[in-house]
C-alpha cells in the first residue's frame, strides 16, 4: 500500500483589524477626568471638551481648565476592546444609547473631527448647546477657512445675536464658535 503525499497548505486566517469608533460615554459624579486619566494609562484615546474658567485659589484669581460638559467623555476604541474595558473597569461609566436603535451612540469620525477642531481650542467664547430635535436643520453648511477653527465644518446660525458656526454631534452635543467674519467661510453643498 502506497502512502499518499498529503500536501499541507497552511490555513491563512487573517482577520481584518477592528476599526476604532468614537463612543459617547456618560460618566457619573463628575469623574470625567479620572476616567480620562485611566484611559490615558491604558493607551486609549479619549476626548473631554474643556474650557477655561476663572476661579480663586489662596485668595488669588486664577484661570483653570475644567470640563465644558460635565459627565461626558468620548472614547476612540475598537468595539471589542470597549466591551472588555466596560466589563472590567471600576470607573462609573455607561453608554449613551440611541433611543431609536437601542444601541450605543457611535459618533461618525468626521463629526468628531469637526467637534474636536472647535471644542479642542479651549476658546473662552465657545457656547455649548444641548440640541433639541430638529434644531440644526436650517442654515447653511459652511467650512471655516482661517483662524483657530480652520477646517471645521458646521451650520451657520444666530446665537446670542451673532452669526456663529455650530459644530454638532447630532442629538448629543453642539458647540458654537465665536463670531466668524463671512470672508473666512465657504458655503458647502447641502447634505442629502
For this structure, the CATH topology of the largest domain is: Alpha-Beta Plaits
Q: Specify the biggest β-sheet.
A: 6 strands, antiparallel
Task: Please write the CATH class name of the largest domain.
Answer: Alpha Beta
Give the N-to-C terminal Cα separation: 71 Å
Q: What percent strand?
A: 35-45%
User: In order across it, which strands form the biggest sheet?
Assistant: 10-14-13-12-11-15
* The CATH homologous superfamily of the largest domain: NusG, N-terminal domain
Instruction: Supply the helix-strand structural class.
Output: alpha+beta
Q: Which regions are unreliable across 5 or more consecutive residues at pLDDT < 50?
A: 132-137
For the structure shown, list the relevant keywords:
single chain, 192 residues, alpha+beta, Alpha-Beta Plaits, SH3 type barrels, 2 domains, 6-stranded antiparallel beta sheet, 5-stranded antiparallel beta sheet, 3 helices, 36% strand, globular
Describe this structure in words.
This protein has 192 residues and is α+β, with helices and mostly antiparallel strands. It folds into two domains: 19-107, NusG, N-terminal domain (Alpha-Beta Plaits), CATH 3.30.70.940; 109-192, SH3 type barrels, CATH 2.30.30.30. The chain is 17% helix and 36% strand. It is built from three helices and 15 strands. It has helices spanning 32-42, 79-88, 109-119, and strands at residues 21-27, 45-47, 50-57, 60-67, 72-77, 93-95, 97-98, 103-104, 106-107, 127-129, 141-144, 153-159, 162-169, 173-176, 185-187. The strands form four sheets. Strands 10-14-13-12-11-15 form a six-stranded antiparallel β-sheet. Strands 1, 2, 5, 6 and 9 form a five-stranded antiparallel β-sheet that branches. The termini are far apart. Mean pLDDT is 82; it is low at 132-137.
Amino acid at each position: 500500500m502506497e502512502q499518499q503525499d498529503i500536501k499541507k497548505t497552511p490555513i491563512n486566517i487573517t482577520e481584518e483589524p477592528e476599526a476604532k469608533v468614537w463612543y459617547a460615554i456618560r460618566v457619573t459624579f463628575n469623574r470625567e477626568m479620572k476616567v480620562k486619566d485611566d484611559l490615558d494609562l491604558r493607551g486609549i484615546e479619549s476626548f473631554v471638551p474643556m474650557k477655561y474658567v476663572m476661579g480663586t485659589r489662596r485668595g488669588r484669581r486664577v484661570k483653570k481648565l475644567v470640563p465644558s460638559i460635565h459627565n461626558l467623555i468620548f472614547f476612540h476604541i475598537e468595539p471589542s476592546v470597549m466591551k472588555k474595558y466596560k466589563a472590567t473597569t471600576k470607573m462609573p461609566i455607561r453608554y449613551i444609547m440611541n433611543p431609536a436603535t437601542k444601541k450605543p451612540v457611535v459618533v461618525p469620525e468626521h463629526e468628531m473631527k469637526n467637534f474636536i477642531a472647535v471644542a479642542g481650542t479651549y476658546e473662552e467664547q465657545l457656547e455649548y448647546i444641548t440640541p433639541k430635535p430638529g434644531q440644526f436643520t436650517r442654515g447653511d453648511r459652511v467650512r471655516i477657512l482661517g483662524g483657530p477653527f480652520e477646517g471645521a465644518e458646521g451650520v451657520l446660525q444666530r446665537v446670542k445675536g451673532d452669526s456663529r458656526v455650530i459644530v454638532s454631534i447630532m442629538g448629543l452635543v453642539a458647540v458654537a464658535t465665536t463670531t466668524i467674519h463671512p470672508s473666512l467661510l465657504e458655503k458647502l453643498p447641502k447634505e442629502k
